[in-house]
Design goal:
Layout (H helix, E strand, L loop, with lengths): L1 H4 L9 H24 L5 H30 L12 H35 L13 H11 L3 H13 L1 H17 L2 H12 L10 H35 L1
Length: about 240
């Protein structure tokens, strides 16, 4: 959708994104098959199917935010808003909009996945914390000593991207609870000097962190749904 608004051709899914979406699509097919075989009187399979379809849509939206933020970042050439003409300021504002939307979506997707994992593998995370995050669910694998292979893989992915995730989480918390995240950088600069221009935050580094957050989400989703599909097929063969 966003690519058409930017005058670009539609995205062709490839690489990690394609593999991730394919794994989730396969899960929805397996869930539909279970529904047909067992009629799904409790609607559990249908619910998981809808949640998985929602994750596919959310991943698509995250990728679009990453792409759009990078698109508008390339149009920003000055290091200070004060030096920009009106057109460049608008492009900078668009960059900020999609960048912020992106890092918020990273954690939104992970938390949605946490809900799916909690239901799919009966982790009972709500007994530990009523309103739980993905990371709380992740700890439940070890606490309950179940699906060690999956839990260990997911922890490894989390640790691989820990630095960028921590940065994105702090910016997400600032954006949601305190102030506009980009203004926090301005505030820090005001503390350093009372005069002179306020330079922009490091846009390239911020985009790199967002890209790493996106990649972490893809690797996490792919790992979960490939594991789930393999497990489901093994059960079906018995």
């Amino acid at each position: 959708m966003l690519r058409s608004l930017l005058g670009e051709p539609p995205r062709q899914n490839e690489g990690l994104l394609r593999e991730t979406i394919d794994a989730m699509v396969m899960t929805t097919k397996l869930l539909r098959k279970e529904t047909e075989l067992h009629q799904d009187p409790t609607h559990d399979f249908r619910k998981l199917e809808i949640w998985t379809l929602g994750l596919i849509s959310s991943l698509d939206e995250l990728e679009q935010c990453l792409h759009a933020s990078a698109f508008f970042r390339r149009k920003v050439v000055h290091d200070s808003v004060e030096d920009m003409d009106p057109a460049e300021r608008e492009d900078y504002a668009r960059y900020v909009f999609f960048y912020k939307d992106g890092f918020i979506r990273v954690f939104s997707i992970l938390d949605k996945l946490g809900t799916v994992l909690n239901e799919l593998y009966e982790l009972n995370t709500s007994k530990v914390k009523a309103h739980f995050s993905y990371f709380t669910v992740l700890r439940q694998f070890r606490y309950m000593n179940v699906h060690k292979e999956l839990g260990d893989r997911l922890v490894s992915i989390k640790e691989k991207y820990k630095e960028s995730l921590d940065i994105l989480r702090r910016r997400r918390n600032t954006e949601i609870h305190y102030m506009n995240s980009e203004m926090k950088d301005d505030l820090w600069q005001r503390h350093q000097t009372l005069q002179g221009k306020i330079e922009l935050e490091d846009l390239d580094q911020h985009l790199l962190d967002l890209e790493r957050g996106y990649t972490m989400v893809c690797e996490t989703l792919k790992t979960v749904f490939v594991y789930t599909n393999q497990r489901w097929k093994k059960v079906a063969m018995k």
